[in-house]
Automatic annotation (TrEMBL):
This is Myosin Ic, paralog b. ATP binds at residues 124-131. It comes from Cyclopterus lumpus. Transmembrane segments: none annotated. It holds the Pfam family Myosin_TH1. The keyword Repeat applies. Residues 861-1035 form the TH1 domain. Residues 31-709 form the Myosin motor domain. Gene3D superfamilies: 1.10.10.820, 1.20.5.190, 1.20.58.530, 6.20.240.20, Kinesin motor domain (3.40.850.10), Myosin VI head, motor domain, U50 subdomain (1.20.120.720).
Length: 1036
């Protein structure tokens, strides 16, 4: 075993600070790191003394087997940095000193290796450090788990959920400046890589009564003070708040607006940043702060009395509330001063008296705040939801931060719920501990010895049993017709469970007990001791009744709309009491914990004054009792105090036996058997399992440790002697090799000198050649000229043109100008030849057509540039577009090109759709199945087209040809392609005329007509007043 010597503050050296708990001589000073190894384990005094020793040495963590006991140091210890996290990462649980990180890492590794969900149960009194412990575990996972950008977002949200929940759920109490006033269970979800990818939070039993009342020296929830102290002036003005907590009735009852250890202004900035990280938008934050401010305004609503009925004396608060909550002011006023009564099926409004109105106001405040807190938790859960549908299977580690067993001078219904929760957790702990112990014994083949322990199932049944349990009786009494009171409830308890051995009332107690019990109290004998509970106000306290839910259901505030469901108003079911709700949620929590592999952290506080270094033995004894630590230790020590795997035990102690040192070659079990036989273990002191050794008494282990300490000194002497021999031998070998090294250094030096001489000669020849570079070739410049030529050729080799369009060429030296030109021409010829060789016949034909189009129309017709990137096609009409009769009429003539065109009549210029077919002998104009006109290429005199971007062109025919009726006016959407095809087919490349302004053409009998072209915003072809054909062409 290892024992840790943690810092003596200023008295220990850095070397000692780095040591672990490995020196048994320190045991008397720092105690044992595992209570299981206490010799007198049944003594409570020995238990507390071990805690005290470790606490005085700043060793705040101690184990009871796998249970971690943590004592709040009330000061910062340098044991939570990244180096400490790495020290515990992936290390066996017992290989390092006790730490919260060891518990977190052990749960994480168990989850990864065993593929079973884990949970860590953290319990203790208020101020014992439960919340800090859960935060340390979260920080450990955030630093040590695998990360990505998405995972980092989840880590940030998990960490930032803490300050938000603390602001809305924590408060300053007499025991703790940051006391959690609710129970919290958080699931951290991990993917198959072990990275945290999501989370889920369940909250339990928020202390809503704190909203309207605080004991002297305590405060309301932190968020109210953070808003008032840290909120911007504009924000406070909008919310109607003043920067003075004394102005608000809900903040003055504890008479403690300021706390030296709390910086509300700084915490406000932290909370606002955390809300943004979690995913709250500005609207969410605004609605949330409206609700917080409205609770403060509700507390300031003042009542007067008129004719025995309550009335509100000032409208100021109502105006603020109406605006902040988004409700009608008149309706809200009525809700705060009246109640609704249903009589004979009719709804009647009955006025409230002063006391009832104040209760209605406070009930509304508690309901609004309590439901808003639940909404806040659900909102955080939404931001933590694991959204990756590709892998719906994930592992979980749960963190339970919940109230410990509480006993005060006056114990109310709240303490009853808390202690009932701890009874259930203790029952779960004992069952799971005994179960794991028994499973380990059976797995190792060790006989299980039954353990006698107090089974608190009898107490749990007393509280939760159906029909006969305390909660069932309380439910029945609160919800039955008639006047239920606290005393009738107490009488019914005495009648129903009066004979139970763990239940006593003043009426049933003996004379001695009656002296310490009030008539309104009953006593439960818990696993941790006796507790008297006062029933005053219990029947009022447990009824979940919110006055006038109708008002909140009508709210325009989006958060309140989600918090107050209209279905509640129409629900005819009997409402559940708070006790029944808590019992149901606790049963669900037990199901969650039973489905997971648990680890335990028991938190304790050393004193009530929060002073560092002060150890209050009375308070510690109180907590040891109420946390059930002695019971835990007794269960754990019922069998064997120490157990380790064979390989671990043999590796640590093998040096104590000559047969096992330095290495054991056989089976591990045989090696351990040989070792313990050599050490003289008696049969009753140990058992050998299948893979572990079990040692019954701590003194047996301590004797082995002391033998190991003695053995270390002799081993150290042998190691030192071996090292000195090795060191001297190394020195001799260095001396022997120094001569060889000197000879080798000489060779290397001569080589370097030769290279320097060669470099100097080269530089001299280069400089001399540069001086004589303009002279004819001679011995002085030949090296330089050769180098210049070589350099140019190599540069040319690296920078040759990449294609025929690349005109770049390195500038040659004067001596190589002519050669450079020849090389450039050869290079270009080679690239042209290579390019032409790669051109396909189809591409060649395309390029030839494009070349003709360029010669005809480049810089002459406006729409030519648009046609350049578009490839010419073989035809614009498919076979099914041309009537079969036309194909039949053409006979054997091969069709080279076909395109749809528009023909304009010679007289009225009416536009008619036609098809222009180019054959080997002529151009044919077709109307559906008719050949309307055929123009032989021999009769085609020329082609005219405008210089603008229109698609009109004129085919001029010979006037002597009697078959023709004159020139033909056509329009094509592909005018460049069409005219190029006509020019190629008719061999009329030189007969295409591009005209500026107008085109003159002839019709039948030698009559001339004119087409006028003008630029414009849109294409327009129409007959002008002067009888010409007017074409408005779009500017390109």
């Amino acid at each position: 075993l290892k024992y840790q010597i943690l810092p003596y503050s200023n008295r220990l050296t850095d070397g000692l600070r780095a040591m672990m708990e490995s020196a048994l001589t320190a045991r008397d000073r720092v105690g044992v790191q595992d209570f299981v190894l206490l010799e007198n384990y049944t003594s409570e005094a020995a238990f507390i003394e071990n805690l005290r020793k470790r606490f005085k040495e700043n060793l705040i963590y101690t184990y009871i087997g796998s249970v971690l006991v943590s004592v709040n140091p009330y000061k910062d210890l340098e044991i939570y940095n990244k180096n400490h996290m790495e020290r515990y990462r992936g290390v066996n649980f017992y290989e390092v000193s006790p730490h919260i990180y060891a518990v977190g890492d052990n749960s994480y590794r168990s989850m990864r290796t065993e593929r079973k969900d884990q949970c860590i149960l953290i319990s203790g009194e208020s101020g014992a450090g439960k919340t800090e412990a859960s935060k340390k575990i979260l920080q450990y996972y955030a630093v040590t788990c695998p990360a990505s950008e998405q995972v980092q977002t989840v880590k940030d949200r998990l960490l930032q959920s803490n300050p938000v929940l603390e602001a809305f759920g924590n408060a300053k109490t007499l025991r703790n400046d940051n006391s959690s006033r609710f129970g919290k269970y958080m699931d951290i979800q991990f993917d198959f890589k072990g990275a945290p990818v999501g989370g889920h939070i369940i909250n339990y039993l928020l202390e809503k009564s704190r909203v309207v009342h605080q004991n002297h020296g305590e405060r309301n929830f932190h968020i109210f003070y953070q808003l008032i102290e840290g909120g911007e002036e504009d924000l406070l003005r909008r919310l109607g708040l003043e920067r003075n907590p004394q102005q608000y009735q809900y903040l003055v009852k504890g008479n403690c607006p300021k706390v030296s250890s709390i910086n509300d202004r700084s915490d406000w900035k932290t909370v606002r940043k955390a809300l943004t990280v979690i995913g709250f938008n500005e609207d969410d934050v605004e609605e949330l702060l409206n609700i917080i401010a409205s609770v403060l305004h509700l507390g300031n609503v003042q009542y007067g009395e008129e004719d025995g009925s309550a009335c509100i004396t000032s409208d100021t608060q109502i105006k603020y509330l109406a605006r902040l909550l988004g409700v009608n002011g008149t309706v809200l006023t009525e809700a705060l001063t009246h109640k609704k009564i249903i009589a004979k099926g009719e709804e009647l409004m009955s006025p409230l008296n002063l006391e009832q109105a104040s209760s209605a106001r406070d009930a509304l405040s508690k309901a609004v705040y309590g439901r808003t807190f639940t909404w806040l938790v659900n909102k955080i859960n939404t931001s933590l939801t694991y959204t990756d549908d590709s892998s719906k299977h994930y592992s979980v580690i749960g963190l339970l931060d919940i109230y410990g067993f509480e006993v005060f001078q006056h114990n109310s219904f709240e303490q009853f719920c808390i202690n009932y929760c701890n009874e259930k957790l203790q029952q779960l702990f004992i069952e799971l501990t005994l179960k794991s112990e028994q499973e380990e014994y059976e797995a190792e083949g060790i006989t299980w010895e039954p353990v006698q322990y107090f089974n608190n199932k009898i107490i749990c049944d007393l509280v939760e049993e159906k029909f006969k349990g305390i909660i069932s009786i309380l439910d029945e009494e609160c919800l039955r017709p008639g006047d239920a009171s606290d005393l009738t409830f107490l009488e019914k308890l005495a009648d129903t469970v009066g004979g139970h051995p763990h239940f006593v009332t003043h009426k049933l107690a003996d004379a001695k007990t009656r002296k310490v019990m009030g008539r309104e109290e009953f006593r439960l004998l818990h696993y941790a001791g006796e507790v008297n509970y006062n029933v005053n106000g219990v029947c009022v306290c447990v009824c979940v009744c919110v006055f006038n839910l109708i008002v909140m259901c009508m709210s325009e505030n989006k958060i309140l709309n989600q918090c107050f469901d209209r279905e509640e108003l129409s629900d005819k079911k009997r409402p559940e009491t708070a006790a029944a709700q808590f019992k149901a949620s606790l049963a669900k929590l037990m199901e969650i914990l039973m489905s997971k592999e648990p680890s335990y952290v028991r938190c304790m506080k050393p004193n009530d004054s929060k002073q560092a270094g002060r150890f209050d033995e009375v308070l510690i004894r109180h907590q040891v009792k109420y946390l059930g630590l002695m019971e835990n230790l007794r269960v754990r020590r019922a069998g064997f105090a120490y157990r380790r795997r064979y390989e671990v035990f043999l590796q640590r102690y093998k040096s104590l036996c000559p047969d096992t040192w330095p290495n054991w070659q056989g089976k591990l079990s045989d090696g351990v058997a040989t070792l313990v036989k050599h050490l003289g273990y008696k049969p009753e002191e140990y058992k050998l399992g299948r893979s572990k050794i079990f040692i019954r008494f701590p003194k047996t282990l301590f004797g082995t440790e002391e033998a190991l300490e003695t053995r270390k000194h002799s081993l150290a002497t042998k190691l030192q002697a071996g090292w000195r021999g090795y060191s001297q031998k190394s020195k001799y070998q260095k001396l022997r090799t120094s001569a060889v090294q000197a000879w080798w250094r000489g060779i290397l030096a001569r080589r370097r000198a030769r290279r320097r001489r060669q470099a100097a000669d080269t530089i001299r020849r280069f400089i001399k050649g540069f001086i004589h570079r303009h002279e004819d070739r001679c011995p002085e410049n030949e090296y330089f000229l050769d180098y210049v030529r070589y350099s140019f050729l190599m540069k040319l080799h690296r920078n040759l043109p990449k294609n025929v369009l690349d005109k770049s060429w390195p500038t040659p030296p004067a001596a190589l100008t002519e050669a450079s030109e020849h090389l450039r021409q050869l290079c270009m010829q080679n690239m042209v030849w290579s390019y032409c060789k790669k051109i396909s016949p189809e591409w060649k034909h395309q390029m030839e057509q494009k070349m003709i189009a360029s010669e005809l129309f480049k810089d002459k017709k406006d729409n030519y540039p648009q046609s350049v990137p578009k490839l010419f096609v073989s035809t614009r009409l498919n076979g099914e577009d041309i009537n079969p009769k036309v194909v039949q009429a053409l006979g054997s003539e091969k069709m080279k090109y076909a395109v749809p065109v528009t023909k304009y009549d010679r007289k009225g210029y009416k536009a008619r759709p036609r098809q222009l077919l180019l054959t080997s002998s002529g151009a044919v104009i077709v109307e559906e199945a008719k050949l309307k006109q055929r123009i032989d290429y021999g009769a085609l005199k020329g082609i005219s087209v405008s210089s603008l971007s229109d698609g009109l062109f004129v085919l001029h025919v010979l006037s002597e040809d009697n078959k023709q009726k004159g020139d033909v006016v056509l329009q094509s959407d592909h005018v460049i392609e069409t005219l190029t095809k006509i020019a190629i087919c008719s061999d009329k490349i030189n007969n295409i005329n591009i005209n500026q302004g107008s085109i003159t053409y002839t019709v039948g009998q030698g009559k001339e007509c004119v087409i006028d072209f003008t630029p414009g915003s849109e294409l327009l072809v129409a007959k002008a007043k002067n009888g010409h054909l007017s074409v408005v062409s779009v500017n390109s």
